[in-house]
Amino acid sequence: QVQLVESGGGLVQAGGSLRLSCAASGSTFSINSMGWYRQAPGQQRELVADIRRGGGTNYADSVKGRFTISRDNAKNTVYLQMNSLKPEDTAVYYCKADIAWVDYWGQGTQVTVSS
């Protein structure tokens, strides 16, 4: 059993910052990658950023230069530092972990950016 617990969402004004955290517990012996996706109302879920076990990262073009993903392997935790937030960043943010080539998802955390 694997559980992903997210925290850090909330309401922030445009230009502000938030930091999301996602901690994996359970059978986490082989985490290949962890990442963040988001889904706005009426939109498809999209990749925001992910980080592989070796540290390589991948970002959506819309967040490059504003968001930073990082990972604490010892704690099986991934973070998403979000700066210069825009109203279009408003969405439910989901953590995803690829563990032994199986995808696990968190419950989602709401991020709302007011203009």
Q: Could you describe the 3D structure shown?
A:
The protein is an all-beta fold. The chain has no helices and eleven strands. The strands form two sheets. Strands 2, 4, 5, 6, 9, 10 and 11 form a seven-stranded mixed sheet that branches. A four-stranded antiparallel sheet has the order 1-3-8-7, with no helix packed on it. Strand 7 and strand 8 form a beta hairpin. The termini are far apart.
Features:
single chain, 115 residues, mainly beta, 7-stranded mixed beta sheet, 4-stranded antiparallel beta sheet, 11 strands, globular
Mean pLDDT: 95
Order of helices and strands: EEEEEEEEEEE
Largest sheet: 7 strands, mixed
Strand content: over 45%
How large, in whole angstroms, is the Cα Rg?
A: 13 Å
Structural class: mainly beta
Number of strands: 11
**Can you count the helices?**
0
Helix fraction bin:
under 10%
Low-confidence stretches: none
Distance between the termini: 40 Å
Brief sketch in words of this structure:
Helices cover 0% and strands 60% of the residues. It is an all-beta fold and 115 residues long.
Topology overview:
Layout: E1 2-7, E2 10-13, E3 18-26, E4 31-39, E5 46-52, E6 57-59, E7 67-72, E8 77-82, E9 91-99, E10 102-105, E11 109-114
